[in-house]
What we know:
Blueprint lengths: L10 E3 L5 E3 L3 E2 L5 H14 L3 E3 L7 H12 L14 E6 L5 H15 L4 E6 L6 H16 L3 E7 L3 H9 L8 E5 L7 H9 L3 E5 L11 H9 L4 H11 L3 E2 L6 H7 L9 H8 L16
Parallel strand pairs: 3-4, 4-5, 5-6, 6-7, 7-8, 8-9, 9-10
Antiparallel strand pairs: 1-2
Helix pairs in contact: 1-2, 3-4, 7-8
Amino acid sequence: MAQKSFSLGSRVKLSNGLTMPQIHLGVYLTSGKECVDAVRWALEAGYRAIDSAQMYRNEREVGRSIKSFLSSAANTSQFKRGDIHFTSKLASNTTYKSARRSISQSVKESDLGYIDLFLLHSPYGGKEMRLESWRAVEDAIEAGEVITGGVSNFGVKHLEELLASKPRIHPAVNQIEVHPFNTRTEITSFCQNHDIVVEAYAPLARALRMKHPVIASLSKKYSCTPAQLMIRWSLQHGFVPLPKSVTKERIIANGNVEAFEIEEEDMNMMDGLDEYLVTDWDPVDAD
């Protein structure tokens, strides 16, 4: 079990010795003003990390919103660029040259000077392209364009393949769909045994199980929303949840998980809800 106290200021240690915030705002399927507003509301509420991707086509909006916040009166803590953690992801695994160029384009698009965490978005493309793309991430780190590298949607076999290749830089993160209705224990255990932080996307199961009797009952017990309950479950497992919302009130509420701790018996009950519910794509078994 992970630490007991969590807030938007909580941080998790990475394999490269650095730390990153333990709650990130997800901006999947957001664009234009909706994206800019969501990022601003999150930063004003105390979030310090935003999760984007090339595939989301909103790197520019996220970057613009971060820069706008930093220079605004709302930045009462006088945070600087280094205090905000920005993630993006490579849309497709491809040749080294193409991947390297694509990473540089993301740095340019976001206009934040560098990317804090850059991930291979999926294992698609086959072994050779995965390893070439990872080499591009390593070189982007050495060039100062990226601070930390990781992967997303990698199954155990993909992680084993990458580690067996003896990479110059250890993948610090594996971002996968994880929530009480899809616990992915095999992957999360492998990651935690190999010093790879698990980031949990769709930690709210895209609201598909908010009215489940167990979720409803425990939300009432802990005087919290179903979303807060599921985010807290993720944190107590040591994961980094990426709750997504474009509603100001929900963004604020999703980051407010300090007031309660889920008891071990109830954590076990939530673990038992696993039904391998996939709410989007599921590339973890890709060749």
